[in-house]
Design brief:
Blueprint (H helix, E strand, L loop, with lengths): L5 H8 L6 H5 L11 E6 L7 H16 L4 E6 L10 H7 L4 E4 L1 H7 L15 H8 L2 H14 L1 E16 L15 E4 L3 H10 L2 E4 L5 H7 L4 E5 H6 L8 E17 H5 L3 H35 L3 E3 L3 H14 L8 H9 L3
Parallel strand pairs: 1-2, 1-3, 5-6, 5-7, 8-9
Antiparallel strand pairs: 3-8, 4-7, 4-8
InterPro entries: DctP_fam (IPR018389), TRAP_DctP_sf (IPR038404)
Keywords: Receptor, Signal
Organism: Amorphus orientalis
């Protein structure tokens, strides 16, 4: 990656990168050895806000630690498919990925509570939890049990349902019989059941054709991702279920992180935090923009009975015995973080 000046970088990230000015004030560290190769894998589509933030992450590192790192971004699951990144990191075949709580739960089941539908009320609540002792304990457990170091957390968005036919959804009963594409993680599939649909595992790369052909009736994603993946082209109705306010982590294999000097670890973390701040600002602004765009395109945007969806979600977790696995004390702490 070529050298990028601080002036050029500031122009690229603009006002959206909260804290970027502080980061750029850090002293520059010249590299004295071969650059550390960081291949950054994500299922996010090319050009999507998260993918752009990863490019900015690389630019910031090049500005603050010239030639110390060689960052390459691999969107759309082109390097490793979603669900295979963690084993690849643990084998030493991948350095970085955008880690989701659903993936963590498959390795650390006790942390599955963070996958519960309607756990977080909004963006501020989400950030309060991850910036608290709860987040610190989570990151420590991930590192201890998975060998993965979390650098920063980014707002992925609030998940909504997009359907290929108009159904005028108001309650979970209106979702019965709908084959909704979900990622294959068990907690994702249970989340879908909580919405009242028939959850259908499918790779993100197959969803467009799946919705077009009717193999699935819809999918759930934050609206920014729905638009970036061009899924709006096969969508007739967006249901604002708000069922998950979701984040995603910038994560690096612990052995790779531990091989860095303390100075470069600091530069790496600071770059990740600044890139996620840019992501969050851009995504929050984009969510309202995309809803307006969908309406302009003639897509029906439904505002369902969220209390009915919350109650149905809670009943499914209870009936499936999933909530029995969750710490009531931890749930209370998560709720209290929004007080």
């Amino acid at each position: 990656m070529k050298h990028i000046s601080k002036a050029t970088l500031t122009g690229r990230i603009g006002r959206g990168a909260l804290g970027a000015a502080l980061l750029l004030a850090l002293p520059v560290t010249a590299a004295s050895a071969d650059p550390v190769k960081l291949r950054f894998s994500t299922p996010a589509p090319p050009g999507e806000i998260l993918t752009q933030s990863m490019e900015i992450f690389g630019d910031i590192l090049q500005a603050t630690a010239p030639d110390a790192f060689e960052v390459s971004v691999h969107p759309g699951g082109t390097l490793f498919k979603q669900g295979t990144e963690i084993p690849a990191m643990q084998r030493g075949n991948l350095e970085m990925n955008t880690l989701q709580t659903f993936e963590v739960a498959q390795f650390v089941p006790e942390l599955s509570v963070f996958n519960a539908g309607y756990l977080f009320d909004d963006y501020d609540h989400l950030k309060a939890v991850w910036g608290s002792e709860i987040g610190e304990d989570y990151r420590a457990k991930v590192e201890e049990d998975m060998g993965v170091h979390i650098l920063a957390d980014c707002y992925l968005g609030t998940r909504e349902v997009a359907l290929n036919q108009v159904r005028n959804v108001k309650t979970p009963e209106d979702m019965q019989g709908i084959k909704l594409r979900m990622p294959g993680a068990p907690d994702f599939l249970l989340l879908g059941k909580g919405l009242g649909v028939d959850p259908t595992p499918m790779a993100m790369s197959e969803v467009y054709l799946g919705m077009k052909a009717g193999t699935v009736d819809g999918q759930d994603n934050p609206v920014t991702i729905t638009r970036a993946a061009k899924l709006d082209e096969v969508t007739k109705e967006v249901v604002l279920t708000d069922h998950m306010v979701q984040n995603v982590f910038y994560a690096i294999a612990t052995p790779v992180y531990e091989e860095l000097s303390a100075d470069l670890q600091g530069k790496l973390t600071a770059a990740a935090v600044a890139a996620c701040a840019w992501n969050d600002t851009m995504r929050l602004a984009d969510e309202d923009k995309q809803i307006a765009y969908f309406k302009e395109q003639g897509i029906v945007v439904s505002e369902p009975d969220l209390d009915a969806f919350r109650a149905h979600m809670a009943k499914v977790y209870e009936d499936e015995g999933r909530s029995d696995d969750w710490s009531e004390d931890l749930i209370e702490k998560i709720k209290a973080a929004n007080d």
